Amino acid sequence: MQGCEEVKSHPWFKDFDWDSLKAKTLKPTFVPNIEKKNFDDNHVNNRGWNDEDEIQEYQALLKRQS
Length: 66
Hints:
Layout: H1 4-8, H2 18-23, H3 51-65
């Protein structure tokens, strides 16, 4: 057995409702509150990184490669 069937047959997923997932009717176990901050940023930018600068540099690199 290989591929997705191997994953689906793993004991961790023994009670998982694959049919509901496929039908897109599976109810999430957690729905974040859109009124609250849901991202733990305690470990982000802990080295003085500027994410926006990194994103712009990466986008420029991608443009050069295309």
